[in-house]
Amino acid sequence: MKIAAVRENAFAMPLNNPAYPRPPYKFYNREFVVINYRADLEALRAVVPEPLEVIGDTVAYEFIRMPDSTGFGDYTETGQVIPVRFTTPSGKVQEGSYVHAMYLDDNSPIAGGREIWGFPKKLATPKLSHEQETLVGTLHYGSVLCVRATMGYKHRELPLEPLAKAMAKPAFMLKIIPHVDGSPRICELVRYYLEDVTLKGAWAGPAALQLFEHAMCDVARLPVREVTSASHYIADLTLGLGEVVFDYLQND
């Protein structure tokens, strides 16, 4: 293969049989169960990188079922998201969320999410199911149970406008790509938005959340002190591409 052909075709690895197609990626009937809980403020500050600032002491624990996504297929994802504040170089303050940890069961979105955006994805076995009047979420890392979540099914309908505004806020993550010598080649704070969001329904209900200690799946590093709210909603959306807002290798 000629050098020019390599340059033209190289967007993902392996070169001749990429692990995922080119974006954009659209998601249909994406189902969210989000349990908000109070954690320890100092534990949050210890894991959220500057220049982001932690807002309060809360964490959103998310289970997401993606039954129909272009390029990525049918899979389930779970993880922790932390409310944060970011001040742009122009001085504008943005409120959004920091994606702290993600666990999922599908190679293609693991590879694409890590390589394109820098999503902190690891291979595991999350499940979200409907058991009679209860939504049940679990996360196993290998054979070990790391998370158990339950929520009452559609106890109260939620207005869509406040949720739509929340989904319009940016999310941030730390993209790290090593050099061939093991040193960091890329170390960037990335911002992205959800696009073309169509909410199809949203509901609230009682919820419970348990996190269990595991050396390689350390969700319990952000311990549950009190569950404050829970929501269950379904949406179509497009995962917007990211932009670099801070380069750790170029800025002090």
What summary fits the major beta sheet? 12 strands, mixed
The total of beta strands comes to: 16
Report the span from N to C terminus.
Answer: 41 Å
Question: What structural class results from the helix and strand content?
Answer: mainly beta
Low-confidence stretches: none
Radius of gyration: 18 Å
Sheet-strand content, in percent, reads: over 45%
Number of helices: 4
H/E order of the elements? HEHEEEEHEEEEEHEEEEEE
Helix percentage range? 10-25%
Global outline = globular
Mean pLDDT, to the nearest integer, reads 97
What do you see in this structure?
This protein has four helices and 16 strands. It has 252 residues and is mainly beta. Strand 8 and strand 9 form a beta hairpin. It is globular. It starts with a helix and ends in a 5-residue tail after the last strand. The mean pLDDT is 97.
